[in-house]
Structure formats: C-alpha cells, structure tokens
Design goal:
globular, eight-stranded mixed sheet, 6 helices, two-stranded antiparallel ribbon, alpha+beta, 10 strands, Glutaredoxin
Length: about 200
C-alpha cells in the first residue's frame, strides 16, 4: 500500500484570523496566537522529562514522525539540515525536535542513532502510547497505523511547527516548502523589526 501523508489544511488549524497574519510575508502558514500545544509531557531519549521551555531563546522546529518513515520524515529532516546551513551563524539559534508517533518501535537508542544521521544537535522525544496520543491531539496532529505486509507503517500529518525564541507558536511549515523559503521565514522571526517593518509598509 502506498503511504499517504496528511497535511493539515488552513481550515483545520484554530487560527486567529487577521489581515496582518495573512499579509505577514511568510511562506508558511502564520498561526501566531493559535491554541496549539503549547507543550508536551514526553521525555528525551535519556529519560529526562522534555519541555519546549528547554529551548527558550532559540527557534524550535517541531515535527511529528517515525524512524521507519520511507519518505516524508527523511525529507523533512534533510530540509531542516539545509535550513540550518542556509541560516549561517544563525543556524546555532535553531533547534529541531522530532516527536515519534511510533513509540512501540522507536526505542531511545534507535531515535538517537536516527537523529545523529542528520545532525547531532537534533533531538527526539517520546512517550508511551497514551502520552503520544494526547500530544498529537494537543498539536492537532493526525496519525494512524497502516498495515504493510507482515508489519505496519504510519500515516501522519506532515507539518513542521515553528516556535519563536520566546516560546510562542508562530508558523506551520508545509511539507512542500523549500529550504530556501523556510530559511527566509525563520530570518523574519529572528529579526522581529524586519517583520514589523514589512507589515507597516503594507498598511501605510
């Protein structure tokens, strides 16, 4: 069975609709102020409780996936590597976090190995089945098991959420966005004055 990725539509997200958001200059979906998350009760691969607050001061790219994903997840993580490169020195202000939707197979050692294959600074978090389901629901993420031969694969939403340096959710990056488009969006978040100036120029 061919895997299908599920990309949340604009209407599926509880957006705070405003002309300013629509004209923000972002390629990604601007979800500033949306009631998504804002945190989770999961753990790092070393067993330590994980929180988005651990990365305050950095931009956080949050993605839901699994290690045996054949296409969407490797593509998203490879894009994150390229985004970090495109940001140059500001790449150090970026933190990539992957939440596994397959905790039954994604053990801590496997997640560590998987993340290191992309970038040693990327981190993965996991929980039990109940915690995973609650986190996915809080973040408006869809996922489900799909039988595949003698095993299974996972269908899941292919959005990447972006939190700004103050820990507020700001963007939902679509899977089809290029690394260049994503990097441009993140530069706006890293330079709030530039973002504000863009909006001011539009409405003068």
């Amino acid at each position: 069975m061919q895997r299908r990725s599920f990309i949340s539509s604009l209407a599926a997200l509880p957006l705070l609709a405003s002309t300013a958001h629509a004209a923000s200059g972002f390629t990604a979906i601007d979800i500033t102020g949306a009631n998504i998350g804002p945190d989770y009760q999961l753990a790092y691969t070393n067993g330590k409780p994980a929180s988005l607050r651990d990365f305050k001061g950095k931009l956080v790219l949050l993605f839901f996936g699994f290690t045996q994903c054949p296409d969407v997840c490797p593509t998203a993580l490879s894009r994150a590597v390229e985004i970090k490169r495109l940001l140059g020195e500001d790449g150090n202000k970026l933190q990539v976090v992957v939440v596994t939707v397959d905790p039954e197979r994604d053990t801590a050692p496997l997640l560590d190995e998987y993340m290191r294959a992309f970038d040693p600074t990327f981190v993965a978090v996991r929980g039990n089945l109940e915690q995973t389901a609650k986190t996915a629901k809080d973040f408006k993420i869809f996922y489900r098991k799909v039988p595949s031969g003698s095993s299974y694969t996972m269908d899941h939403t292919a959005l990447t959420y972006v939190f700004d340096a103050s820990g507020k959710i700001r963007l939902a990056m679509k899977h089809e966005q290029t690394a260049q488009q994503c990097a441009a969006d993140l530069r706006l978040l890293l330079n709030p004055k530039k973002e504000t100036g863009f909006l001011k120029g539009l409405f003068q």
